[in-house]
Queue: 2 jobs
Job 1
Amino acid sequence: MSAGRGVAGRRRAAVELAPQRGPQPAAAAGANAVLAAGRRFRNILTVLRFAAATGFADFGTMFTWRSWTIGWLSRVLCQVTFFALIGRLLGAPEAVRYLLIGNAVLIAVLESAFVVASTTWERRAGTLPLLIAAPTSPVLVFCGRSVQWIASGTASASVALFVLSPLFGVALPMPQALVAVPLIGLVSLSAYCLGLVLAGLVLRVMQLRNVVGNVTWMVIALLAGVQVPVTFWPAWVQAASAVLPARNGLAGIRALLDGDGVGAVCSAAGLEALVAVGWLAVAGLIFRHLAEQGRRDGSIEFVD
Amino acid sequence: MRHVHPISIRHLTRRFPPARKGGPERIALDRVSLDIHAGEVHGLLGPNGAGKTTLCKILSTVLLPTSGTATIYGFDVVTQARSVRPLIGLVFGGERGLYSRLTARQNLRYWAALYRVPRRQVTDRVETLLARLGLAERAHERVETWSRGMKQRLHLARGLIGDPKVMILDEPTAGMDPVAAREFRGLVRELRGEGRTLLITTHDMAEAEAVCDRVTLIDGGRLLRTEDPRTIGRWVSAHERVDAADVPEPILSNLESLPGVARVERLSRGAVRIHTSVEGATATVLRTLLDAGVTRVATTEPSLEEVYLHVVGNRGMRV
Amino acid sequence: MRVLLAAARLQLATFRRSPDDLMVLLTVPLFTPIFLVIAKHAGRLDLAPYAVLAPGIIAMLSMALNTSGEIIERDRWGGTFELTLATPARLPVIVLGRVATVTLASLLGIAESWLVAYLMFGIAVPVLHPGAFVLTLTATAIATAGTAVVFAAVFVWTRSARTFQNSLSYPLLLLGGALVPVALLPEPLHPISRAVYLSWAADLLRASLAPGPVSALWPRLGIVVGLGAVGYVIGFALLRWVIHRARTTGKVGYA
């Protein structure tokens, strides 16, 4: 910065003054409040949209269609096959069915768990202080930032389910089995919300991001009815695992594919949605707390 | 006894394939020839992309030349690379080049093993280097926690671990604050005093002038000139100049018509530079100025920076 | 030899402080219960040896892919690769020292798996043929190190090493019969899986845990070591090529 620049060289911030208004009738005040809420909501959507665009752009640099299919999808298919084959080892066709469906849905959880790692990229990019200094809540950015995993996870899990089932002789009732896709999406979403919570916690200890992500999906694999029914576990474990993503959603998917009633499927989906909202709320609190803490203890770096 | 230069370069050329198909080939070094004398501190000056780092890489056997030869104490860097490597200490600037999760001590011990330092001497040498470079107190900490300046000193320690006769320092003071840079220059002088030969690439004019015995200007892969930094000014103008400030206008026109004055250059803020073209003209100019009551005067020679800017900016070489 | 040890020490020091590298050892105690509960729920605890062995094999392969595989690539990012080329020491020796250290560390996964099975489920899988077991583990470690050298060289070559790392793990575990013996794979895959050293090693390890004699121990060990040796040959050739490329073009890989 040369000393010769002077005041004239500095850009002036545009300052808008709200027009002065006199007291308003109640109805007009109410209408204004609604309009303001509407504007706020649209702003939230815009922020989410842009954050998501960043996330998808990141995804685009990691994968091309070819590398996603050859690189990622092949791994997914092999992973589900690995577990489904255990059913063959056990010599039990019901086990093959159980394991195949469970592990296919698990893929959606596994990919959503990447949010723990991808959230730290925001910190790495050094944009954190900029986000905090901006008027919009950084929580929104973090929420939207990694949604590409939901899309990718839902897609790969669905492909695994529908491609491998015929190969393993697992019969799926068509066309209602296709409803599994949005249900997988729901599972992916609720796993994403849990992932956001963990991402917030891990932001301070970035080197643990991969460990936490992996442990998360593996714990869900163990306890949420993926490999064995939840009833296998003692009561206290069952109670604790009730808040885990995929537990209800997977039950709903199994109910759907086993031809159980719509009621069973819907109530399971409803519970899964509840779990998602719950974790999302916790995530919001954690990020807010993180921002406040960071401002207090100076841990928000300009250059990391 | 045949005299062998520590570094001897003949018609060294390095071409890189084009970045895109059908684009031009990049010529990083173009028939560079240079001899560096024993015990000399030799500076290599040039803008980014001039070929300095490429030359360093070739001399340290990390990169092969396209054509030409380079020898270190008579050993060819291409065909006798194994004999060259123990003789060279390589020092980079910047953050990279260290195992950041390890401590300084662990880093140095590792490189000591790679440089085949005799086992019995390793501890002694590592501790001596750490002490010499002021790193001993924090040698047990992970390098990633260190400041830029300390990392730079560790780079230097690493370069010295094999007790090399020739040291190649590539932009060693990049990003250093002035105090650290000055300490570094002191170290360089010490190393020279130990009989080592140093090749330093740099942008830092003050450093080159302060430390180097000779300086080579390089641009676009071509060697422009090699010269003592103190006399390199002659390359820009053969004679002295007189700088003066607050010179009244009428005096300036007088000066222009004085015999032996080549031209009067106006600088910023009312200062002028009077270029002379004849021996002894300086005295006349000075007298004229002093008689006119101008007291802020100085006789100067072009600095390395001016030479650099003139030459690299292709603004011609002589006044 | 000295360079080998120095490289091993470097690797040990680096990886002690790297959660990503140690992560594999943290996931073993989760794989073991996953496999055991499947067996237990199906009333097939006779398959417990399979369930306890598999996480150890997964650990070895994962570390070969993720840690060993990234040795050169990390050095390249960190700026130490070129410095290494300038030293009198030879890169293949350094890589070998580092890969060997990682492989030895990954053997901890096997011990961990046994411990977790005992602590969580009270299942103590007896090693019925300890001699064969130890010999097979040794051969497997040697072969894994050889394969890891190939990974290290290849991953510095390709632009998207991470995609490869992710996409090679499960296919190799499948073809290698890490949990489910290759005999249960579809017929067409059998010849391919027989080219993977892991399939022979896993079968032998399971055999050494099973009652009844271990058939054809030495020939099978020989195949494991032989296939591993192929890994070394290819790996070192690739390393020489990487060095040559670095010195002639100034670039290390296509990245």
Job 2
Amino acid sequence: MSYVFFPGCSLDGTAKDFHRSTLAVAAKLGLDLPELKDWICCGSTAAHSTDPLLADALPAKSLASAGGATVAVACASCYSRLKMANHHIAADRALRARVARVVGGDYNGLTPVRHLLEILCREIGLARIAQTIRRPLAGLKVACYYGCLLTRPPEITNFDDAENPTLMDRLMETAGATPLEWPHKTECCGASYSITDASIVLELSNEILAMAKAAGADCIATACPLCQLNLDMRQQDIEARFGRRYHLPVFYFTQLLGLAMGCPAEDLSLGSLVVEPQELLAAKGIAC
Amino acid sequence: MSAATVATIEIEDVGGLAGEVNARGGARPMSCFQCAKCSSGCPVASRADLKPHEVVRMVQLDQREAVLTSRFIWECTSCQTCSTRCPQQVDPAAMNDALRAISRAARKVAAGTAVPAFNDIFLDAVRRRGRIYEMGLMVRFKLRTRRLFEDIGKAPMMLLKRKLPLMGPHVGGKAGRKAMFRRAAQGGDQ
């Protein structure tokens, strides 16, 4: 299968480490991820809470230019918006015509969209990934955190079980780590309220960090730039606000997988993590 | 249509706020039977002025003022838990999107919420640049809402961690994008 990569805006900014580690992991697998040319922002929550037509038109503009390839997505929010637009456009001829007039060309809503986790676990397959593991993450207890938009709403994203997804858990297991059973896999971190009303993020992300800690996690693995930013960059604020001490490194799952594959630390941008993971990795004997 | 086909009644087509919400984004508030499953799973229900099942009920009863001025519609994180768990396919998340737009159009937005300003700045950046430059977005938002010093301490760390590139992206086709936004604002009609 051939893919084009839709990185999304965050992967060129605050989630540059997600971008780099994705490409590092892809290189180890011989997975070609050329960037979709001239992709534009999916519109995110700003578009869907302002104008539903614009929220479908922005993804349609990018998806129409994929030329038949499957669009690979890393960001959970982009993934949700691209899938939502496809779902709306493919099911509603009148809407399809309106979107065509807005975008200036017809789009049928049928360009396949896949998240990296789906591509790795389902299309490449865990057996093949297992063959690329050089330094198993033995003894590392990982709380796999999926956030909201990969799984919900399930009839649109079709990603995994909406209440208890396991794709990332199985991937981490393949990388030699120990994924934990814990109840907050799909709780909301507060998303973009980090900018408009940080108190929401502090409250919600505190619940997630507290639960991961209580479950015995050494670290958290994420698949969304906003989740990662809220749990990592706001962790100190959360500790101060609630008088707790977590010190939980918050990785992108691609960083952990890359470590297990033997990628050098700089290719995984581990230096971008605010809660520094070096001490934990050294204690677990995971070289980086 | 065969004689055996039972006629269905479209209960969402009732006019009022419920009808408007349905027409704008497909939510089905009239189908709600108040099981409150939405509120049980809602991450902001405990802090907001209203709970999701209460908002749905008020929409059914056409209580425009109370709904459109509520803080809840601006504190919803669009996490989609309510819409996923609703046994009646009400889609409260889509209902909230419609209510936000109706609230803005009616100039009823709850005092103190910064979300509409953020959304405007965000979409304006997409229109002009094609992509979001996070640092530029934050600076413009903080200037607009006069919160200049909130989180300012994070800036040096973010630069050091290379989370903020110094240059923003630009995608070509600005004129086409502006036309696209204009046509969307007109509803995509001919």
